[in-house]
Write a structure and sequence with these properties.
about 325 residues, alpha/beta, 7-stranded parallel sheet, 5-stranded parallel sheet, 13 helices, about 15% strand, globular
Length: about 325
């Protein structure tokens, strides 16, 4: 039996897939409902949501005594207790390093869209219109042209390299730092250390995977080296940022603005109480979206099918 708690409603031939008697489709199921399904079924495979409202940890996984494979249609895995999987010989699949991942563009495109939204103050502009005002707030809404702006990209994997292509199309000046990649794009200046890049950019974009090395890597040391009035973009994971340091630099206006699609501990808390969200509610120099970078019909379809196929193979 296979449990699917990831969305499949938009997938072509979904009925053919979900009507299989070996599949239990429970998209949107609460934690308690997942445990109920696990209690009454012998699941060998589970395609989980990439952004569940609960962490998939030992307190849940112990209800799946015969689980052989857990698949997440995402590149990240901070919603999964990987140590439990390893200790119990449960195979884990995610999109990172998979064959399909380089055919998925949603997160790369969204990162560039978020960059534009921050630079041109789009959320504030629409808010002003909703309030019944028009051009009376020109000084508040004046932004920057992308042409000629200097962007520094940390992490030159799929998203970072795609972002560089989009930025080049807008005649931006691009630098990138990634000690694990030899960058062959002639339009990108590869730097050997962050100290070399940070003082010379207008925008810092973080496009790294979350691991022990990158956790908390964006901190006061990084922010302090950026020119005053710089911008910050993060669509990787909230845990790569020291959020107290980010808030400090937004409040002092050392950072002119930031755009985030992720926050720390987003699977484990009431996010309305998150310090960054509370700040963004009354300060227009922080834009936060609810982890939707990968949320397109095309990319999600590829991701869901890849995860399901991985489960079926094992």
């Amino acid at each position: 039996m296979i449990l699917i708690t990831s969305p499949f409603d938009f997938v072509e031939k979904k009925n053919e897939i979900l009507n299989d008697e070996t599949i239990v489709y429970a998209y949107g199921a609460s934690r308690d409902e997942v445990l109920e399904h696990a209690t009454h079924n012998n699941f060998l495979g589970w395609v989980c949501s990439p952004v569940p409202e609960y962490p998939i940890d030992s307190s849940i996984l112990e209800y799946f005594p015969n689980l052989k494979v857990l698949a997440s249609p995402s590149t990240g895995s901070n919603h999964i207790d990987r140590n439990y999987l390893e200790k119990n010989n449960i195979t884990f699949f995610c999109l990172k390093n998979s064959e399909i991942v380089n055919q998925i563009y949603a997160s790369s495109e969204f990162t560039f869209a978020l960059l534009i939204a921050v630079i041109r103050k789009l959320p504030l502009a629409t808010k002003i219109v909703h309030q019944g005002r028009w051009r009376a707030d020109e000084e508040m809404l004046r932004g920057r042209e992308l042409h000629g702006l200097r962007i520094g990209i940390i992490g030159y994997g799929r998203i970072g390299s795609n972002l560089a292509k989009y930025c080049h199309a807008f005649s931006m000046k691009i630098s990138a730092y990634d000690p694990y990649v030899d960058i062959e794009n002639k339009n990108v200046l590869q730097v050997n250390n962050l100290d070399q890049m940070l003082p010379k950019i207008d925008i810092l974009a973080c496009c790294v995977h979350l691991n022990n090395e990158t956790q908390g890597m964006i901190n006061e040391k990084i922010f302090s080296q950026l020119p005053c009035g710089s911008f910050f973009i993060n669509t990787s994971r909230g845990e790569v940022v020291n959020e107290a340091d980010l808030l400090k630099n937004l409040k002092t206006k050392h950072l002119q603005a930031a755009g985030l699609d992720v926050i720390s501990d987003e699977f484990n808390r009431n996010n309305s109480d998150h310090p960054l969200i509370k700040y963004s509610q009354s300060n227009s120099n922080l834009i936060i979206s609810p982890h939707i970078a990968g949320l397109t019909f095309e990319s999600e379809t590829k991701a869901q099918l890849a995860a399901l196929n991985a489960v079926k193979k094992i």
